Amino acid sequence: MRLLLVEDEPNIARPLLRLLEAQGHQVRHAPDLAIARTLLAEAEPDLIILDVRLPESEDGGFILAKEARGAGYKGPILFMTARDALEDRVRGLDEGGDDYVVKPFELPELLARVRALLRRVSEVKQSRVQHGPLELDLAGRSVRWAGRLVELSPREYALLERLALYPGRVYSPEELLDLVWGEEASDTGVVKVCVHHLRSKLDPRVVRTVPGGYRLGIEP
Prior knowledge:
This protein is an alpha/beta fold. The protein has helices spanning 10-22, 33-42, 60-70, 86-94, 107-126, 154-165, 173-181, 189-201; strands at residues 2-6, 26-30, 47-51, 77-81, 99-102, 128-131, 134-137, 142-145, 148-150, 207-210, 213-216. The chain has a five-stranded parallel β-sheet with strand order 2-1-3-4-5, sandwiched between helices. It has a four-stranded antiparallel β-sheet with strand order 6-7-8-9. A two-stranded antiparallel sheet has the order 10-11. Helix 2 packs parallel to helix 3.
């Protein structure tokens, strides 16, 4: 996962960086508000770990969180701060935070909170499949092409979902007929028609005809 750590105190930032990177995360560190804004604009992280008090402002963390939400950032934000007043914790959550840990904290507790927030990110990511301009929302059974929502019939969606979930595999027309139509059809001609509709509605590249059948035309 990609994390953004915004913390100006080296004695807190250094051990956190080491621990998070040891767990396999890609962590970018910002010691102040200005660098945090730059890093956030360059690449959207999966999680922001954010000190409230930053060199530029006592409320720097709150300011950055509000800006990030305003810009459309949807990932979780974890505040860590010495400010433990109820009004501060409430403000942190109101400004877009998802969790709030008070300094001094034990590192195992902070790491547990990070894991909990990242589990939510993983669940969201697993409900989506994206290959280039093609994006499928598996939970909502919706499809976008280059950001444009495209309406598909249930059969068209089912066929496309099968190809998108296994992008390197070639499916024969007979296999697709069995997987998508079951006993409700026996003529592989319906597969050919369905592929034609997908290419017309999305893009001619979306399904590729290859020896043995069809495969997803967009490279993973």
